[in-house]
Specification:
The protein is mainly β. 12% of the residues lie in helices and 36% in strands.
Length: 191
């Protein structure tokens, strides 16, 4: 039995030494590569996001006289080196009103001689240097984005800022009591 075990051991060592010509050795040998090519593409990403300030959905107009209410914030980012954008700010849900104003809701009582519309000014301010801020009581436009400020990359257009409502100092005794609402339409146009 010992002689048979030594012969098997010798046979296995010979097989391993000569294994370079075996089919298993061919599968385990590295194949020669002269060139490896890896290709990738960076997709164009353009994002415009507006975040509504929840506190602007229910506040006391009389207590907010002669103050500024933050309606929301906005962010624009684009990695398209040739993109240019413009924000259009219009009064009304569908941009159809003439001026920005709080209007008494339809189901609220309106007594003779009471006023039911409180005008206000919208201000869109940028948190980014070199960006333009605008303000007005009617529809307006604003160029969006500054190149080179986001990670010092001139190919990226970036801007972030606030949308504000400037409530005037009005006499609440002249107005009907109840719920008032206002809408500001924001749209982005590609130039």
């Amino acid at each position: 039995m010992g002689k048979a075990f030594r012969q098997l051991k010798l046979w296995l060592m010979c097989f391993l030494l000569l294994g370079g010509s075996s089919p298993l050795a061919l599968l385990a040998s590295p194949l020669p590569f002269t060139r490896v090519e890896v290709l990738g593409q960076m997709p164009v990403t353009e994002v415009f996001r507006v975040i509504q300030n929840q506190n602007a959905l229910n506040f006391n107009l009389a207590d907010s006289r002669n103050s500024i209410v933050q309606v929301g914030t906005y962010t624009l980012i684009s990695n398209n080196a040739v993109s240019q954008f413009k924000m259009v700010i219009r009064p009304g849900e569908f941009g159809q009103k003439e001026r920005f104003s709080f209007a008494l809701d339809e189901n609220e009582p309106l007594l003779p001689g009471q006023l039911s519309e409180i005008p206000f000014t919208v201000r869109v301010t940028s948190d980014v240097s070199r960006a333009v801020s605008v303000a007005g009581s009617e529809a307006m436009e604003k160029d969006l984005g500054v190149r080179g400020i986001y990670a010092n990359n001139n190919a990226i257009l970036y801007e972030t800022g606030s949308i504000l409502a400037e409530i005037p100092d009005f006499d609440p005794d002249l107005y009907a009591t109840g719920w008032y609402s206002a809408a500001i339409q924001l749209s982005i146009e590609v130039l």
